[in-house]
Amino acid sequence: MKTIKKPVQVEINVKKSQFICSLFPTKNKKESKEIIQRLNQQYSDATHNCTAYIVGDGEGFDDDGEPGGTAGKPMINVLRKNEIHNVTAVVTRYFGGIKLGAGGLVRAYSKSVMEAIGEAEIVEIEEYDVFELVFEYSDIKTVDGEVRNNSLEAIDKDYSDKVIYQVISRDSRDIKKIFEKYSGKISVEFKNKQFLEKMSL
């Protein structure tokens, strides 16, 4: 599965209409909606802000006033065709005075997203199980050793009253099995599944 590494923006002009495609890496609908809302405010003077997203908890699109099926659907179709996931696309249009017709709109919105994908840095992503480990400072060396020796990956570390690691694995049974022997000393809790950039675990 693929996604984009960082946001990218491209601009094309079709018969005096300006199309600005903004692509953002996003993990869920909440992030997508926040981005769409922000761009709607940023480009509040635009004729249309059409959107499409494919994220971990769903997908969707919106024509934002363009004729039905001429904007959002072609945009999401381009994302699907290129197998791009965890992404939100917003195409902002400033009308140039010349109507493009349904076919012209489909081509323009599709091309905007295609051009943006062409400019983006594409990375492979995989689904990982995310676990939270909670333990005392005195057990840091033990936990670090188990993470390293079992080819796990700590994606976040928090040092407060206790130490909290967010650890990922492709197989949840691995983490549970590894830390079973430390029952009572190291708390292990499954948090969620996440699509993350592919790691050499």
UniProtKB/TrEMBL annotation:
<protein>
    <submittedName>
        <fullName>IMPACT family member YigZ</fullName>
    </submittedName>
</protein>
<dbReference type="InterPro" id="IPR015796">
    <property type="entry name" value="Impact_YigZ-like"/>
</dbReference>
<dbReference type="GO" id="GO:0005737">
    <property type="term" value="C:cytoplasm"/>
</dbReference>
<feature type="domain" description="Impact N-terminal">
    <location>
        <begin position="15"/>
        <end position="117"/>
    </location>
</feature>
<dbReference type="InterPro" id="IPR036956">
    <property type="entry name" value="Impact_N_sf"/>
</dbReference>
<dbReference type="InterPro" id="IPR001498">
    <property type="entry name" value="Impact_N"/>
</dbReference>
<comment type="similarity">
    <text>Belongs to the IMPACT family.</text>
</comment>
<dbReference type="Pfam" id="PF01205">
    <property type="entry name" value="Impact_N"/>
</dbReference>
<dbReference type="InterPro" id="IPR020568">
    <property type="entry name" value="Ribosomal_Su5_D2-typ_SF"/>
</dbReference>
<dbReference type="GO" id="GO:0006446">
    <property type="term" value="P:regulation of translational initiation"/>
</dbReference>
<dbReference type="InterPro" id="IPR023582">
    <property type="entry name" value="Impact"/>
</dbReference>
<dbReference type="InterPro" id="IPR020569">
    <property type="entry name" value="UPF0029_Impact_CS"/>
</dbReference>
